[in-house]
Amino acid sequence: MLLGIFHPEIILPHTAYEEDELHFILRHELYHYKRKDILYQFITLVFVSLHWFNPFVYFMAKAIEIDGETSCDEKTLTENTYEEKIFYGEMLLNFLKTTSQKKSYMTTTFFGGKRGMKKRLTLITSKKARKKGTAAMAVIMLLTIMLSVCAAAMSNEYFDSVFEGDASYLADFVKTEKKALKTIDSS
To answer: Which tens digit of pLDDT belongs to each residue from 126-164?
Structure first.
């Protein structure tokens, strides 16, 4: 797993790895580093913390996590044979069997549950190109939440000051405009 924002480090369980396994693991984590996935995990954590009461945010966080992993899997396995993809999927399953999986924030460790792992393995072994729709949906959800936060941050006092006071000037303005339109029409 990749750990840290400013000086990221790769941390691996203390086990014996084959050369092929290390190649795939390090390449996968390198893509996490290049894509700045730790930063996205931090932003997601901030939104989950601010909107802990909103179940939609938890779905968004899980979608972002799964998309980050599947995207790195896709990059890691570009131009690999089908047999190498199967090896990679088996390596992931073996990793899950041999290590205890606990959710760690601010890391790129994968804790997507059964559905997330099933999706990940399906995409790994799929011979079709991955669709970009899921990633686009995660971005849209993130933008929606950001706009919601901005709207909630605006003070009601601002709106009250705009609409408070005597509004009779508006009625006078409308009457004046109607008269002006009538004189234009009668001319």
So the answer is: 766 555 666 777 788 888 888 877 777 665 555 555 556
Beta strand extents in 9-155 (DSSP E only): 9-10
How many Å apart are CA 124 and CA 68, to the nearest integer? 14
What is the Cα–Cα distance from 2 to 74, expressed in whole angstroms? Answer: 17
Task: Decide: 90 and 18 in contact? Cβ < 8 Å.
Answer: no
Place 177 in a pLDDT band, splitting at 50, 70 and 90.
confident
What torsion, rounded to 10 degrees, do the Cα atoms 117, 76, 128, 68 define? 50
User: How far, in Å, CA of 76 to CA of 19, rounded?
Assistant: 15
Radius of gyration of the chain (CA): 26
SS3 for 134? helix
pLDDT of 134: 67
Which residue's structure tokens are 């690999």?
80
At 154, list the tokens: 């605006």
What pLDDT, in 10s, does the model give residues 50-96?
988 888 888 888 888 888 888 888 888 888 888 888 888 888 887 77
Ranges of each domain in the chain: 2-153
The overall longest dimension of the chain from CA atoms, in Å, is: 94
- Give the C-alpha separation, 91 to 85, whole Å: 10
